[in-house]
């Protein structure tokens, strides 16, 4: 019988909970965006602008306080800022041309893109069990989508083909952004990543707003009802962006995208308990499927654990054979090495020995 204790660890549980926290934040941004849309405010780039400003200010101050050098080239962060801004813009823009169902389905394109990019660029290895977990998660989401398909929804949208192409482009950019962030988090620094992403994201957003959304912002009648969802959206996005690098460093971009699939399920929970709406039973089956998929994917491979354990045992055995597990023996070896180095240095610096070079 499989020893689940060796596979499901405290780290696994933390990763799952963190993923669901991020999923809830995305759900919150979705409902706040819908509230803004109900009030006639359609300015997706402007909504993201404040989030980028908060990131630049908060993490920029931390960078200045630490006084550490930049670990990655600044122009890579410029490219990441452009990709991130345009990914958010394209997916929101697609709703003007195609149906909600199409957007939800095609947005899943980010998952195979992340698998491909991490395998090709980051050399991430995926065991069959993890691929099975991915398939179960996607199957659960498809259940939700098809339970919502109606004839009216299928025919909605002024230009479905154009909208579908825009969603695919946005999902691909999401994958590029997530994989790039995973790379920077693991090779550079989280604070540096967030500071520069906020800085260049704010610059790109500001330029785009001045070109595309000036008239929209002028037409908004600002009040508490309009400002609160706007600010709430920015704060939720700020928290989301702040915790995404943590999950990326712990579990990678694939786990992040799989965890975010449950945002549609949490939206159903809010519809039930906040708006008192009735939903189809298939939602609960789908939620269970996604949950199982996440458990299958995030569980630690027993093969990896055995390899790590063998490495530890081999290291201990080597110490025992060489006497390094004995403190007295270890001190004697270190003392001997120090004496040998001193004698070698003295021999090299004896009078009459000439050094080459300047």
UniProtKB/TrEMBL annotation:
Q: How does it sit in the membrane?
A: Multi-pass membrane protein
GO MF terms listed in the record are:
transmembrane transporter activity
Q: Where is this region: Disordered?
A: 322-358
SUPFAM superfamilies in alphabetical order = Multidrug resistance efflux transporter EmrE (SSF103481)
Q: Where is the composition biased (Basic and acidic residues)?
A: 327-345
Localization, per the record, is: Membrane
Where does this chain mainly localize? membrane
UniProt protein name:
Solute carrier family 35 member F1-like
Naturally occurring in which organism (per UniProt) = Solanum tuberosum (Potato)
Gene this chain is encoded by: LOC102590760
């Amino acid at each position: 019988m499989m020893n689940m204790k060796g596979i499901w660890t405290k780290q696994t549980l933390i990763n799952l909970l963190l993923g669901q926290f991020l999923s809830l934040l995305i759900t919150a941004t979705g409902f706040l965006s819908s509230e803004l849309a109900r009030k006639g405010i359609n300015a997706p780039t402007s909504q993201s602008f404040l989030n980028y400003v908060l990131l630049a200010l908060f993490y920029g101050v931390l960078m200045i306080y630490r006084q550490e050098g930049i670990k990655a080239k600044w122009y890579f962060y410029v490219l990441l800022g452009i990709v991130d801004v345009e990914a958010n813009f394209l997916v929101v823009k697609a709703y003007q041309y195609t149906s909600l169902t199409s957007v939800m389905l095609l947005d899943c394109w980010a998952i195979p893109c992340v698998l491909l990019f991490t395998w090709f660029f980051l050399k991430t290895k995926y065991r069959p069990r993890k691929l099975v977990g991915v398939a179960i998660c996607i199957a659960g989401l498809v259940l939700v989508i098809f339970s919502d398909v109606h004839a009216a929804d299928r025919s909605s949208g002024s230009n479905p083909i154009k909208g579908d192409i825009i969603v695919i482009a946005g999902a691909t950019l999401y994958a590029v952004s997530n994989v790039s962030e995973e790379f920077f988090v693991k090779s550079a620094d989280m604070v540096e990543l967030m500071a520069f992403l906020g800085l260049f994201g704010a610059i790109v957003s500001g330029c785009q707003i001045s070109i595309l959304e000036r008239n929209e912002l002028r037409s908004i009648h600002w009040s508490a009802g309009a400002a609160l969802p706007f600010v709430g959206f920015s704060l939720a996005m700020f928290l989301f962006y702040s915790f995404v690098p943590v999950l990326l460093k712990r579990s990678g971009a694939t786990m992040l995208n799989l965890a975010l699939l449950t945002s549609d399920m949490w939206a159903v929970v809010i519809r039930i308990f906040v708006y008192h709406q009735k939903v189809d039973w298939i939602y609960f089956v789908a939620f269970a499927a996604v949950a199982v998929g996440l458990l299958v994917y995030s569980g630690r491979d027993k093969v990896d654990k055995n390899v790590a354990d063998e490495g530890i045992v081999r290291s201990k055995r080597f110490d025992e054979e060489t006497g390094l597990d004995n403190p007295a023996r270890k001190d004697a070896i270190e003392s001997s090495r120090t004496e040998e180095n001193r004698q070698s240095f003295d021999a090299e610096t004896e009078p009459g020995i000439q050094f080459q070079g300047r």
